[in-house]
Structures are given as structure tokens and as C-alpha cells.
Specification:
This is WG containing repeat-containing protein. This protein is flat. Strand 31 (289-294) and strand 32 form a beta hairpin. The chain is built from no helices and 54 strands. The chain is mainly β. Among the domains are: 287-355, Thrombin, subunit H, CATH 2.40.10; 374-447, Thrombin, subunit H (Beta Barrel). The termini are far apart.
Length: 522
């Protein structure tokens, strides 16, 4: 979805909270031919991934087999989190962990567990342990002030003012700083200076650089022995890619070199992006995107591979563009220029957005309209909002109602909706008065707004909820499974559909006969 419709439509992938009923329920299992294959009795069933299914019965929580039989009993009262391949379970004494194959690797006694693909970091109070799946061992790290898993898969721990890498080949070596970033190397500092550590925990740049900071990816900006340096990380030995005794500044993602006090170069991660005389100002407008102004008044748009819009006269600002059109401002008004800086559509608007499918939203005064790639108005500026066209359709908002719009400017949904959200494969979920319906990729309403919940599944099947009961329908509204169920789950890995009914099995207990003694053997 491109926006949240209601909280019931949110799908949580990384953190799973599962509520298990306390009463036994019947589940029916159907194949994709909608033939009943079996019946199950569980209080609850949760499908966490293709391989992980968890059920609860009167005996507790279980990992289930592909045919939904109990395979491995799980300790604890609830699934705390599922972070593939780890299942974190919560019990009375704390949190523990199972591998998705069913192996219990940590007892349910910890306050916190951090996960990585092949190991776990567990904390109880101020004490830490690490479980390494490859070795099948759990090692005690001791009492620490802090410990966390870094982006590269090393554990960074702190005790007092010293930092350590307990999974490295030298776990007792202290550092003054160990700093994670979005690259593949950890920034390390000792009393001798800054260096870099790789994914194995090995120094690939000795800590001797006077100053060092991360810029982007695997690139770093530093100062050492009177010269500025640009360094690229490497698994074996980091490389100095550029060095200069001239001043290089780095601030807010913008790196500039000055020669004799004059702006001369725009720098990138490992060297020179632009070397030009006469630059007076560089403004970073986005990641690797800059407006560059010259003494003669020309302005250009610079990207990571060079000029996106060549420097041209009289422009105040150039935005990143699409489809060969770049929004640009002159004398406070917006239009569009091409790569040569020539006007394709003259500046007559208060704002202009990127083209999408040869349609762009423009703003005049308080309202939005839309133009085609020739500048022809296809939607008058009378809209509160116009979203980018995709698949031949846009979405506009007027008087707090949303409408589906065609590329020729027609409103395809008379009366509009409270909300319209794009979902998968070009479909639209629409809402009126807290009831939802469905539009197909051609903008045709295939399901009216009479449902409490809709979720497209395989093919043209839709899980629907109406009058607090769930059923399975197709996109024509034809009923495939009746609205008799509390819950419907799709097990796509095994091509099965699970439905939970409201029926509760009755357990009959034969009372003992009063006033009569049982005979031996009876």
C-alpha cells in the first residue's frame, strides 16, 4: 500500500505479535481446488513464514509440520518476536530463543535478545552472552555497560570508557571508540588515531589517522599530518584514494575543495566529481545531487556522473527531474527545462513536481492541477492534492474526497471515496464510511464498499470480512468460502487454506455413579 488505510490493513513482517486464544477452535484445511482435506483442533494457528507455523493446543505451543501436526513443543506462553531464522519466546522468567528448525538455543531467562543470522546476543541485567550457531556454543561475555550487534555482524561492547570486539581474533584489545555506519567497516579509534575494522574484526587501516569520519558507503573523509585524505575501505587493506594539502570541507553530505581560498572542486567519495574555475556556490539538494552556481550567473544541476542540466543563465534553482523534464525556478515561478537548460515549459507555476507517465502536477495559488508533456492543462488547478500517475491513473483530492483520475483528466469515480490506496498489481483499495471495496487495474470497481476488510491473495481471490465474519470471494464478489469463519489464512508454500470456525469442541466427561462402590476390575 502507498498509505495506511486503517490499522487492520497493516502487515508486520519483522516483528510478530501473536495472540493465542484460550479456547479450542476447529480449523478446516482446504486445498487450492477448495476441497476439504482435514480438520484440526487448535486454540490458534500462526503462519510466520513458509517454513514456520505455530499452533497452540491444550498442551502448549508447538512448531507445526507441513500437515499441521505438532512437531516441536516450544517453552513459554507467547511468541515474543519472529526474526528469521530465530523464534523468540517469552515465559515467566524472561525471553529465550529457538531456531526455526526447532532447536532451543537459549533458555527463557533473558531480558533482551538481539539477533543476527548466525548468532544471538543475550542480556540479563548487565551480563551478556553470545550464542554462535556455527559452533553450537553459548559463551559468557561478562558484565558490560553496553553491547550491540553492529551493521557488519560484529558485536561492539563497552565497559567504562573502553570498547571491544568480543567476536574478533583479539577480543581483549581496547578502543576509545567503535562506530558503526551504513558501510561494511567499523570506524575505530585508539590513543594513536583512527582506523578501520572489517567484517572479520580485523584492522584494515591501522589507527594512525588524526581525524576520520564516514561519508557514504565504504568511503571516509580524514585529515592526517597536514593533508586531507579520502579513503576507501577494503577487506584486506584500506586505500587512500585522494590526498591534498588544500583545504577540503565536509558538511551535511557536501564535500568541497578550496585552492588558495577559492572554491575549485566538488568531491565525491573517492576523488574529484567536478573541477571548474569560477564556482561561487554549491548547494546539495539531495543525495549526490547539487546545484552549482558560477560567477557569470549560470546555474547547473550536477549528479554523480556529471551534469544532469548544463549550466545556464537566469535560473534560481533546478530540481532532479524525470522523463527529460527538470523542474526549475526563475523569478519565483516554476517550469521545466531540458538537459541543455532550455525551457520546455515556461515558468508560470508556484510549484511543479516531476513527470510520471508524461503527466506532472503543478500548483497555482493554493491548488494543484496537472499538465501533459506539452504543457497542456489536463486538470485545472482546483485540487487539494494530486498524486503521481502510475499505470495510467492518478489520484486527486478535492473537498476531502479522493477520486481516481485518467490521463485525459476525467474523474473515473463519481462521488469519490474517503480514501484510495494503491495495492499490489495495480489494484486500488477504496474506503467509504469505514467500509472498503476494490478497484481493478482498469479503474473499474469490482467490489463495492461493503466490507470491513479486504486482502487480495493468489489469482483473483480475496479474503473478505463482513458483519464480523470472514469469507473467501473472487473479484466478481462470488462466494468461494462462505462468511462463516473467524479467520482465514493462506499457506502458499503448501497450497493450502486454513479457516477457523466459531465451533468449540465439547468434551464429555462421564460422571461417576454415586452411592455405589466400583467392583474390582470394573
Amino acid at each position: 500500500m502507498t498509505q495506511t488505510l486503517r490499522s487492520t490493513f497493516l502487515l508486520l513482517f519483522c516483528t510478530v505479535l501473536i495472540h493465542f486464544s484460550t479456547k479450542a477452535q476447529t480449523w478446516e484445511v482446504y486445498d487450492y481446488d477448495l476441497q476439504l482435506k482435514s480438520r484440526l483442533v487448535y486454540q490458534s494457528i500462526a503462519i510466520l513464514s513458509d517454513a514456520v507455523k505455530i499452533g497452540k493446543n491444550e498442551n502448549g505451543l508447538f512448531l507445526l509440520s507441513s500437515d499441521y501436526k505438532p512437531a516441536v513443543q516450544l517453552e513459554g506462553k507467547e511468541v515474543y518476536q519472529f526474526l528469521e531464522p530465530w523464534i523468540l519466546m517469552k515465559g515467566e522468567k524472561g525471553i529465550g530463543a529457538y531456531h526455526e528448525y526447532g532447536q532451543k538455543v537459549l533458555n527463557l531467562e533473558f531480558d533482551e535478545i538481539q539477533t543476527y543470522y548466525n548468532f544471538l546476543l543475550a542480556r540479563k541485567g548487565s551480563e551478556y552472552w553470545v550464542y554462535q550457531r556455527g559452533k553450537g556454543t553459548t559463551n559468557y561475555l561478562g558484565e558490560l555497560d553496553e553491547a550491540r550487534i553492529s551493521n557488519v555482524g560484529q558485536i561492539i561492547s563497552r565497559k567504562g570508557n573502553s570498547y571491544f570486539l568480543p567476536l574478533s581474533s583479539n577480543p581483549d584489545r581496547p578502543f576509545e571508540k567503535l562506530e558503526d555506519n551504513d558501510g561494511e567497516y567499523i570506524l575505530a579509534k585508539t590513543k594513536d588515531g583512527y582506523g578501520l575494522v572489517n567484517v572479520e574484526g580485523t584492522l584494515v587501516l591501522d589507527p594512525v589517522i588524526d581525524e576520520l569520519q564516514h561519508t557514504k558507503g565504504n568511503f571516509y573523509y580524514g585529515f592526517d599530518e597536514g593533508q586531507y585524505v579520502l579513503i576507501e575501505g577494503d577487506l584486506v587493506q584500506a586505500n587512500i584514494k585522494y590526498n591534498s594539502y588544500h583545504k577540503i570541507t565536509y558538511q551535511d553530505g557536501l564535500m568541497l575543495e578550496y585552492i588558495h581560498g577559492k572554491l575549485r572542486r566538488v568531491m565525491e567519495g573517492d576523488g574529484i566529481l567536478l573541477d571548474a574555475v569560477g564556482m561561487t556556490e554549491v548547494i546539495r539538494i539531495d543525495q549526490d545531487l547539487y546545484n552549482v552556481r558560477f560567477r557569470d550567473g549560470k546555474l547547473g544541476l550536477l549528479g554523480i556522473k556529471g551534469w544532469l542540466v548544463n549550466p545556464t543563465d537566469s535560473l534560481e534553482k533546478i530540481e532532479n527531474g524525470s522523463e527529460g523534464y527538470f523542474p526549475a525556478r526563475k523569478k519565483g515561478q516554476y517550469g521545466y527545462v531540458n538537459r541543455e537548460g532550455k525551457w520546455l515549459i515556461k515558468p508560470t507555476y508556484d510549484l511543479s513536481l516531476n513527470y510520471s507517465e508524461q503527466i506532472a502536477a503543478i500548483k497555482s495559488g493554493l491548488y494543484w492541477g496537472a499538465i501533459d508533456n506539452y504543457g497542456k492543462v489536463i486538470l485545472n488547478p482546483e485540487w487539494e492534492e494530486i498524486k503521481a500517475f502510475q499505470g495510467g491513473f492518478g489520484v486527486g483530492k478535492k473537498e476531502n474526497r479522493f477520486y481516481l483520475l485518467s490521463k485525459d483528466g476525467n474523474q473515473l469515480t463519481p462521488g469519490g471515496f474517503n480514501k484510495i490506496c494503491r495495492i499490489d498489481n495495480g489494484y486500488f483499495l477504496v474506503e467509504n464510511d469505514q467500509k472498503v471495496g476494490l478497484l481493478d487495474p482498469n479503474g473499474k470497481q469490482v467490489l463495492s464498499t461493503e466490507y470491513e476488510y479486504l486482502k487480495r491473495e493468489r489469482g483473483n481471490w480475496v479474503i473478505a470480512r463482513k458483519n464480523n465474519k470472514s469469507g473467501l470471494i473472487d473479484e466478481k464478489g462470488e462466494t468461494l468460502l462462505p462468511f462463516d469463519y473467524e479467520e482465514i489464512l493462506f499457506d502458499n508454500a503448501n497450497r493450502q487454506i486454513l479457516v477457523r470456525g466459531s465451533y468449540q469442541p465439547i468434551v464429555v466427561v462421564e460422571p461417576e455413579t454415586q452411592g455405589r462402590k466400583r467392583k474390582r476390575g470394573n
